[in-house]
Amino acid sequence: MTREVVFRGATILTIDAQHRVLAGDVACLDGLLVHVGGAYTPQTSDYDIVDCSGCVVMPGLVQAHVHTCQTLARGRADDLELLDWLRKVVWPYEAALDEEATGASAELACAELLLGGTTAILDMGTVHHTDAIFESAKRSGIRATIGKAMMDADDPQIPRGLRETTRASLDESARLIARWHGSEGGRLRYAYAPRFVPSCTDELLREVGVQATARGVGIHTHASENLGEIALVRARFGGKDNIVVLDELGLLGPHTCIAHCIHLSAAERALLAARGAHVCTCPSSNLKLASGVCGVPELIAAGVSVAIGADGAPCNNNLDGFLELRLTALLHKPRLGPRTLPASEVVRMATLAGAAALGIADRVGSLELGKRGDMIAVDISALHTVPAAAPWSQIAYAAKACDVRHVAVDGALVVRDRALLTLDVAKVRERARRAAARLFA
Ligand SMILES: [Zn+2]
Questions:
Q1: Is the dihedral of CA 366, 371, 374, 380 positive or negative?
Q2: Cα-to-chain-centroid distance, residue 207
Q3: What is the 113 CA–ligand 1 centroid distance (Å)?
Q4: 74-133 pLDDT tens trace
Q5: pTM value?
Q6: Residue 422 phi, psi dihedral angles, 5° rounding
Q7: What's the 158 CA to ligand 1 centre distance in angstroms?
Q8: CA of residue 401 to ligand 1 center, whole Å
Q9: CA of 342 relative to ligand 1 center, distance in Å
Q10: What is the per-residue pLDDT for 389?
Q11: How many angstroms does the Cα of residue 259 sit away from the middle of ligand 1?
């Protein structure tokens, strides 16, 4: 790896506080951004200059809710609502995953994500084999905060292979934190991942709240995605809503990211804002599972920071951050008017708000001096993006994952001229096909 990487001659979306758009070079030295805009001269003899003419250079997309372990089930769980989708396909699939299949699934996801311009993810694994996910993320070069799914509820609908005791769930999480949190120079991190309230005991949820704070790691969960799920929570907690339950169990704080949050009351939105908890909206998944539409503008108006994610391949069915960005921008306009969530706001959600949801906005999410070099060059010379009038608009409404030309994570080039440098894509594809064929045989 070269010490200096220079993305040369681009239009630059900084996503800084002034949303400045600059022209010129972006450079990293030893992983850190040392130059943004104007011409840059390398300071050492160990540099790589990457031509970015015709490109928009911007921070890499940050997806604050994905399941890389589910990628092998792409196309296997179509046209179902959430609880059926979980019980009939996704949980049995996850219960059948072994170490090799989990690693193959995560590797496929990481390759797709990086080639599509996503440089950081918040990933919920399955109950077992979380080391295999970390190994794939490590090799691919992606920045990842990962957690094993926690499922200790005594629920006969959960397959045997995914049911665990409260103690085992907490012990395995602690082991994974010791092994992985902060490794690879901070590129890999851990977040507790209680799957959702119905799959966890009160004791587990309460303990996650305590341990996450004590260990300084995040919490990643799902809530209020589906009315059936909310009915389960209300029946168990005397009519209380999901967000209220999570708060009473001590899980809400600035270190918490909750996926979906579709069916919320105004009081729940206010509670999320008061605690500084983050929401990740996953529009394709929410549409496909017929879950509903998250009230993103209402959450933002209440003071909640909202990030964007693709969720998993069985509910999307791809992990294209640009597609989710565009959908987030479009989805609320019919209801609230065309000025709702303008392009620049949605691009900020897909980058800096994502970094905030991962608890790493001080390090990535914008192109500012001193941050880590997570950046992408998006080619806007394809027919579907020409003529280039306004870069915010190009990125929010016209660009696609396949327009991503170069990607750097932590100041290291991982994609150059649309080729992944860290993994052999042909081998990733073959490994995934083999593992999927074995699983679904
Ligand atoms: Zn999910």
A1: positive
A2: 25
A3: 16
A4: 999 999 998 899 999 999 999 999 999 999 999 999 999 999 999 999 999 999 999 999
A5: 0.98
A6: -90, -30
A7: 16
A8: 21
A9: 26
A10: 75
A11: 7
